[in-house]
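Record format v2
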Amino acid sequence: MRFIPLTDKDKARMLEVVGAGSVDDLFADIPAEARLSRLLDIPAPMAEPELLDYLEGLSANNATVKPFNMYLGAGAYAHHVPVAVDQLLLRSEIFTAYTPYQPEISQGTLMAIYEFQTYTAALLGMDIANASMYDGPSALAEAVIMSKRITGKSRVVVSNLVHPNWRQVVKTYTRHLGVDIATVDCVEEGLSTAERLGSVVDKNTSAVVVQYPNFLGHVEDLKEIRSVCDSAGALLIVAVAEPVAMGALEGPGKFGADIAVGEGRSFGGSLSFGGPALGLFATKEKYARQMPGRLVGKTVDSEGREGFTLTLATREQHIRREKATSNICSNQALCATAFAMHVSFLGKNGLKTLALKNHSAVRYLADQLSKVKGFKLAYGLPFFNEVAVRVPVTPSVVNKKLAQEGIVGGFDLSQVYPRMEQTMLFCATEVHTKQSIDRLVSALSGFWR
Amino acid sequence: MTSQYRRGLVFNEKDIFSRGSAGRTGVDFADTGIPDADLNEFAPEDFRRNGLEGFPELSEPEVIRHYTRLSQWNYGVDANLYPLGSCTMKHNPRVNEAVARLKGFTGLHPLQPDTAAQGTLKIIHDLGRWLCEVVGLDEATLQPAAGAHGEFTGLLAIRGALTKRGNPRSKVLLPDSAHGTNPASATYCGYQAVTIKSGADGKIDLQELDKLMDENVAALMVTNPNTLGIFESNIVEAAKIVHSRGGFLYADGANLNALIGKARFGDMGVDVCHINLHKTFSTPHGGGGPGAGPVCVVKELEPFLPAPMVVESNGAYRLDYDRPHSVGRVHGFHGNVGVLLRAAAYILTVGASGLKEAAEAAVLNANYIKARLKDYYNVPVPGLSLHECVFNDKKQNEYGVTTLDIAKGLIDRGYHPPTIYFPLIVRGALMIEPTETESLETLDEFCEAMIDIAKTAETDPESLKRAPVNAFVSRLDEAQAARNPDLRCELCR
């Protein structure tokens, strides 16, 4: 086996030093009934060329289409990641390192994460951010739990325009922690209105949760929602599923969000069937010690030089154990580094241009689709890079027809909101061209001429 | 002090926010033929971001140089031995990286129809089957994104099954040697974490277990081999005690590298375990993640695993959402699929014989280190070690040298230190795990470095107190970092 350097001669010498007759003697503590006396029933070893051939074959069984022929968003967005990001990630000092427990020889990881924390906090308009969570949904769940820890209150009011999968993860996480989730139906307006939320918020409410832009792509009025929170002494938690929008929108912190979380995969990540993802978590400075997850801080070495180290670990599971702010240990550090790299390549102007390109693409898509017979925008509201569209037949019929043209259509909203019959969510980003969108529109026009 | 040890070029890299110049950019955008929309229509004025003040403006070479220099300030397993006990830092095969980057895998949207995702669904399904075979259990979910995420998921499944039986119970028992994530996960599931004191031999004390195991205990959580590197040889007896009183036995699979192909949790009476794919299955940890923490369970617990599950019939794969007893979703989509692909590639590369060989070599390597160092460092707990061995600083303390000093001394000698001050039950612990991918020459060189430190502790302890002098920075003031947290760069806001 090519990953093991020990030869028979090496083993013999080592056994002599150890004072054991055979390697099996070292396993003597394992009771006989628990020992495996056969080989595991898994496939025989494959040499590298066989393996590549096999897995290339499997990958070809996925109907992956060119990004510009796919119009699915709904929490996972197709973007172009600069080639240089992956080339840098593959530097082995970056990807073969572990958690930076020994800061003196991990300054690279630590500084990259410190910069990631800076980017995350700045994009979300917050004071501080942590070193990453598993994904946006788990970050949101941790935010909800943190709000209970801060306020001592147990009711959380969640708009149903927060991504359905995110809401499910929040439910799973909080089920046994005495958190009562009140879901508010805001589909009719397409926005989480102060009226709807306000009618459910009470003195027992620890937090109000909205998504920005929301699941339908609309920009929530965080100012109004903030005042609903203030009236009840609740925290405002804002979830950002598409951080690219932050290139054109003020971060939630600007409107007084107490905790902002997000899914960061759009920067530096790939779709990869939804993972690895990247959870963003940011909050106000005063809540630093209530935050879940790892933090990197700046300090000095014994000679007064600047350096970085993991810090505030006393909140964490390896010290506080059952009293920790969270059980998270492994995070998504490599994805966080990729995020920082991608944002660095974009820089101030690239971020803005990227947001504009995304919005322009979906705006064009929306305008063209509106001209197709039977197609109509579902709301008269501004949207970022996704738009809800009424379609003349069931969404599955639309998508089947598009599939025949090699196009992956939009998301069937009736799966989440049963009252939204024949409504689809179409997404377009910087990878879509006029030509690709025209092709989509002409395919649909052809069917319903 | 440090300059005499520095050779060549060590760059003093500034943070990225103090670099660049207005007008530069590191990306270009295709002309898509789409006219620019009016951003004024997109959101009310107060919400529009007019500037991203303080964000850097850098060209491609500047960004590349920044991260290349940062990488030079890092130690990875490709550089040398990374003997972090309980973390299993083995070689990261490059073919895994090539596989995970195949366009057919990376370009797949998580909401594409099952019929369009057969390749990925098959690999997730097959990996689940292989992992169940490895641990001797029946069903698996691959949704959890890390080991602790798996602990949480597995305990939720236990809670689900007990609730269905009529009482979720209130407590989880944990040996005092448990990973800190175990009690934290128990708390997140609404359980009270109750510690069981280990016996003098470092193993579960069956009498103590017998005393604590009652009808309010949902599960006993055991890491086996435990964090002392010792096999819990009472495990079969412990399982009987737990089962006879209606509880479940949970195994933390963090140390699976010691057992793979040699013994199986299911055969020991374990009902549920998680597996850290980034450890035993060789996926890189990238400075702290991503990982993946699949959970395997006995049949009784299967209905409670997170939805959706990948199911197969007649060679066709689909996501099954119809799971009325499921604990719910723990991940936004289907888990860290890219990590799953790497682990599957590893299993396919080494096969059954390679997995067994890995455990044997990992255990032999650890025992070799233990044998070579036992005259120089105190062994706090007797008994046979498996894949990791634990020493402490008792001998060196006589000269005022602590575990931290030993660790920093190792840095000066060219090694990443072992895990220090864990497990908590050993004062001044040093936990060494070489893994199977290290050669005898590397182990010998490492042992020489450790022996040199032991000798230096006697003759020149002060030099160890000053260590490291040969690293990118000298010893960092961690207390100050915690007292005055500085968690981000200043931007021109």
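The mean pLDDT of chain B is 95.
The CA atoms of residues 5 and 12 of chain B lie 16 Å apart.
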